[in-house]
Design goal:
- The protein is an alpha/beta fold and about 325 residues long.
- It is about 45% helix and about 20% strand.
- The protein is built from ten helices and twelve strands.
- The radius of gyration is 20 Å and the shape is elongated.
Length: about 325
């Protein structure tokens, strides 16, 4: 179903504008739960969370492992639930593993909003983040243009994350219109940048005269490593399309090694996520069912293509 983004934006504005000024309890705390909390992507989200906390005069906290570990994320969320916060924002590193924890929070009367990575089969109230299928379509268009409709491509991903699966589906749909472009394989980096580095080195060694023409990263960690490996090997003329705007990714775009990246808005996800939770806490819907109660099921925070033409605007001013 295609949703007019103007209608969605208007609906979101009407929903959120009811927040207004209100008295907050001194114990009112909202928690963001995520994996890999130390990477630049989540640091940007935490900045958005902090800004919203200041604007709404509430307390916030962050929980989750410093590395990609869905089981550890679930354990951390269960600890958060025991503290009975006013609401939880969570990025589901693995949609199936996190489902029970999300449901446990909702059953305990704690409203849960997913951001960045959804767990659609859970009882979460709504999802705030990127339209990941559309992001894949956008990336697929960039890839097809860069390859002039012909070549082989390798993807880097993490199984179990619904957002990455949706991005791959978008790419696959875009490339279905390009019979000259073939997908060689999808590499599981297991949430570790070092795994992307090692896998790329192994790929170059095993393929030799059949090295892929393009490398596409569905998450934030892999592409700087891919760029590093190709540069060390003195391989030029390859297309790299990244995800997100880590400083390393932006540096490689500036150097002309990464062709483009698709930027998400983690700051916006966390900022509006807290704003929504605050509104739900003070104006709780008559039903917690995500299909009722007047809540939207999805708020699209949008994407931006970053390449050599605009990369400077995404880098901090020196």
């Amino acid at each position: 179903m295609i949703i007019d983004k103007r209608i969605l934006a208007a609906a979101c504005f009407l929903f959120l504008s009811s927040c207004g000024l209100r008295r907050h309890e001194t114990t009112e705390t909202y928690v963001l739960v995520a994996a890999n909390t130390k990477i630049p992507y989540w640091q940007e989200a935490i900045a958005g969370l902090s800004a919203a906390a200041h604007d709404f005069d509430v307390k916030t906290d962050v929980a989750g492992p410093d590395t990609y570990d869905p089981k550890a994320e679930k354990e951390e969320m269960m600890k958060v639930i025991a503290k009975k916060p006013a609401g939880i924002l969570v990025s589901a590193a693995d949609k199936d593993i996190m489902k029970d924890a999300i449901d446990a929070a909702m059953d305990a009367g704690i409203p849960v909003v997913t951001i960045d990575a959804d767990s659609p089969a859970s009882k979460r109230l709504l999802f705030i983040g990127t339209n990941n299928y559309d992001a894949g379509l956008i990336g697929g268009g960039l890839l097809a243009k860069a390859l002039n409709g012909k070549g082989s491509v390798v993807f880097y991903s993490i199984p179990g994350q619904s957002n990455l699966a949706e991005r791959l589906q978008g790419y696959q749909r875009a490339l279905a219109r390009e019979p000259g472009i073939k997908i060689d394989e999808v590499i599981d980096i297991k949430g570790e940048s070092t795994a992307a580095f090692d896998a790329t080195q192994s790929l170059l060694s095993s393929k030799k005269n059949q090295i892929p023409d393009a490398f596409v990263c569905l998450e934030a960690l892999a592409c700087p490593e891919v760029a590093d490996v190709l540069t060390r090997a003195k391989l030029t003329g390859k297309t790299i399309i990244a995800m997100d705007t880590s400083p390393a990714t932006l540096d490689w775009i500036k150097k002309g090694v990464i062709r483009a990246t698709i930027a998400q808005k983690p700051y916006t996800m966390a900022y509006y996520g807290l704003r929504v939770l605050d509104d739900i806490h003070h104006n709780r819907p008559a039903t917690s069912d995500a299909n009722h109660g007047g809540l939207p099921t999805f708020i699209d925070t949008g994407t931006t293509v970053v390449d050599s033409s605009n990369v400077a605007s995404f880098q901090p001013k020196s």
